[in-house]
Amino acid sequence: MRAGQTTAATPSGGSGLPPIPEDEWLSAAVLGGGLPPDVHHNLSAAAQAYHLEEVAERHLRLARLAAPWHPAVLIALYRFYFYKGRLKDALDIARLCLAKAAQDNKLPADWRQVVATDAEFGRFDAPLPRFFLFTLKGYAYLHMRMGGLDEGLAAVLKLLELDPSDKVGAQVLLNVIQRMGEDDHD
Q1: Where are the domains of the chain?
Q2: This protein's superkingdom (predicted)?
């Protein structure tokens, strides 16, 4: 189904509600819409218990068990691991998000094979392609932070190829990589 089409299905199955455009559903989903009540409860509880890492993570895992591919759950896990400094765990979630974003956009599974004409990457108001771009940016950044500069650079260059107007801010990451290279020569 292409962005802008409607669907009667909701994330939790049929609800009897009128169909909504897929792009609106995804935007709402990323913000937490369409979550089953128990998942919403666990995400909220994780946020409240953020300072208690084990408790917060338990709630996030319960949310993931109930809605394993919901964007709000994956984003919550990614942010939790990232802000807790658990970069390897954040990278694992980024990889899952990349796989989901590729599947949702009907893109090749390997982000290196994606080309600009595969989706509407230039439209910032297209949530599915935007989710892919922001996920790839997070993937690139994490690799850079963890010392994987070659992989990070490849992802940044792919971002700039897919989004030449740089709506997601990949140029900032490229500048960082370039400055790192200059610092090596000083």
Answers
A1: 86-184
A2: Bacteria
Q: Tell me: the pLDDT tens digits for 101-114?
A: 999 899 999 999 99
The separation between CA 63 and the C-alpha centre of its own chain, rounded to angstroms, equals 17
CATH topology for the 86-184 domain: 1.25.40
**Could you give the CA distance from residue 7 to residue 3 in angstroms, rounded to a whole number?**
10
Q: pLDDT tens-digit profile of 87-102?
A: 999 999 999 999 999 9
Instruction: Return the H-helix or E-strand segment holding 59.
Output: helix 53-66
Length of the chain: 186
Cα 25 from chain centroid? Answer: 16
Cα angle 73, 64, 49 (rounded to 5 degrees) comes to 70
45 CB-side CA count, 13 A: 16
Kindly state the tokens that stand for 157. Answer: 């260059």
Region of 12 on the Ramachandran plot (φ > 0 left; ψ -120 to 50 alpha; else beta)? alpha
Structure tokens at 112: 């290196």
178: its two tokens: 């370039």
Q: Is 138 helix (H, G, I), strand (E, B) or coil?
A: helix
